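Final report, closing paragraph on structural work. Over the funding period we assembled a curated collection of sequence-structure pairs, and we close with a single example.
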Amino acid sequence: MAGTPPSTKRMKSRGVKSSGKLEGWFAGDTNLISKYLLETSRKNVNTPKVVSFSWMKQQKLDSVRSVLKEQKLKRFLKITWNIYPDLVKVFYTNLTFDGDSLISHVKCVDMVITNEVWSAVTGLKSSGLSINRGNLGIVEDFNKIQFYKSCLKNPHYKVRNFSVGGLKLDERLVAFIVSWILTPRGSNHSTLSEEDLPMIYCIMNKVKINWIHTIKEHMRKAMRFCDFHYPYAILISKFLHYFEVDIEGELAEVIKPSNEINSGSLSKMRFTKIGGRWVSKYGGRWVSKYGGTIEGNEAEEAAMQDDPAAGPQKGMYHDINMEERMPSMSSFEMQMLNRMDTFADNQRNLYDICESRFTNMDTRFSTLDEQIEEVQRQILELQFQREDSPSF
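Its predicted structure, as stored:
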């Protein structure tokens, strides 16, 4: 998203002082404050991602744009807003489920999130398949092994786990959006979960999913499991704005370039842009997003058409005709290649986790600094009061 600020900022407090923030967040409810201190505050907020439909159009990822539009996800996926991580945790501390509605209260503001509110904020409707871990059978004609193989660049690969490393471009990008935005998790993005596969199947086959139900169930899971990060920070911050919760003086984080799904994301997935098309190298060959091989001369000509002045670059197509000089890869080599893909994905995920945790530590130290300053101010006030009071 062009124009988004590149760094985190802190809004200076002119409202609730540090020592009184908890009382302000929870309207003085000591039980909720205890729950926050002992449970909610100790969990992380999931690192959010956003994706632009205009970027997908620019990159000619038309099939992915089409299937996401079919799910009515365009407005939800492109939501950008300042994130208020402290208030997101307050929201989850107070969150309850009442029929079709989410109910929470933040800083004395009651938030009843009905289907009408969902529609106003995200454009989502409560319609379609309600997919849970316990009812995956409601997806007709879905076989996870067969579907996973159909998504692979090499459909003959022997499936040992549902790694994302061997997926074709469209399926890989949809899987990335599912695991980072639609049902985000804090780790293990390199392997598809039991819930990921039917969701990707429905998206790719244009079977409508009830995303409001999916999001609410994912919120329940995040509240239930202690190792789960709190998801949907941007969405909840948008709800705070909708209900006009006072955010003055609260910690605010802006969407950074690292939060965006963009061409750099595809490059990290080991896709390369040649002749205006995103392709991947597999077994020494360039493979299009449809699984077909792009031959050396075609790839070179496509690249020169994309930039005629550049000409062929040394080493750029060194591996394109490798098949002519070496035999096809053995099953062991293919297995090692897939393992290397998984290892690379795990390394990137580890980096994201470390970055998120260091950011969280920085936030905690900043909050601690404020609290120390407030205690020092109160000590000084007490000293002045003692000096001014008459001695007996």
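Residues 275 and 306 are 5 Å apart (CA to CA). The two ends are 67 Å apart (CA to CA). We thank the funder for supporting this effort.
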